[in-house]
Amino acid sequence: MTDQQPGRHMAAEIDQQPGIFAALVDRRAEIAEVARAIRDRGPRFVLLAARGSSDHAALYAKYLTEVLLQLPAGLVSPSTTTLYGAQPDLTDVLVVSVSQSGGSPDLLEVTESARARGALTVAVTNTPDSPLNGAAELSVDVGAGVEHAVAATKTYSATLLALYLLVDAVRGGDGRHARDLGELARSTLDNSADAVAEAVRRYRFVDRVLTTARGYSLPSALESALKLAETSYLAARAYSGADLLHGPVAAVDAETAVLAVTSTGKGGEALHDVLDAVHGRGADVLAVGSAAAKVSAALRIPVAETAEEVAPVLEILPVQRLAHGLALARGGDPDSPRGLNKVTRTR
Length: 347
What we know:
This protein is of the alpha/beta class and about 350 residues long. The protein has helices at about 10-15, 15-25, 30-40, 55-70, 80, 105-115, 130-135, 155-170, 180-190, 195-205, 220-230, 240-245, 265-270, 270-280, 310-330, and strands at about 45-50, 75, 95-100, 120-125, 140, 210-215, 235-240, 255-260, 285-290, 300.
């Protein structure tokens, strides 16, 4: 019977993350070698190519690049290469392709094309022998191990941490803000368990969820919406807090659940006015993060406090647990959502 228990893989993989983080930090020197090669090339611009959850990780890397490296960065639209055949000059450009499987044909084509057009290419994957790794000049292994659940959990968070360690090493950092993430992940999972269980009870029958955040935490809001949609089949939509006030807030009312990711730092501070506005419209706000206690909310899920630049590695953990719990409470199996496969092949 145990072998057939719904959600067993996702639950186990969520719980593996503290150990994965600690092991990845221990491999920082390996990632720093890749960073040294990047520094030696001195890129003038950074492009990030990804799909799905990896696209949210790439957005996190975009924030890191623009803030920590002070370099312009952008997200690639793969179809400009795969469908339209665009061939821009990428001399002195760094192209980072992010893919858990390393098997998506469009990312492979983008990487091969970028390298041929002068870019320095780096693959960040959980599959060291993947075609993507073979196509890129440099590679970073996120080291999360095989992921059996369809919904990405440990591969997503490990990708975030690998990207942080890479960018931090490019700027000459020593990884100090990441050193204790294994221990902090364990305490976050343990200390948020009761609040997550309460959130499952509270939101079991909700149909519509908005997720929101600012700054470094915006990728967490996007990933939260994806996890809730793919495991619990909720109509979930993510907005930057700034964009939410520019129109979508008109759709917020007492029937709306709002999941707000808010951690200590400038992004969390910028979300205060947004949450005051949606709370004032009667929305049921669930605040997740190290600054959750400081905002208007009906329910709060605590997360261990860190430097803002690494907060996304931790703040997604209780949301993964929430998605898992809601899926089970609504009669689903988060290990095997309907209509989804582990590797999506697009062009």
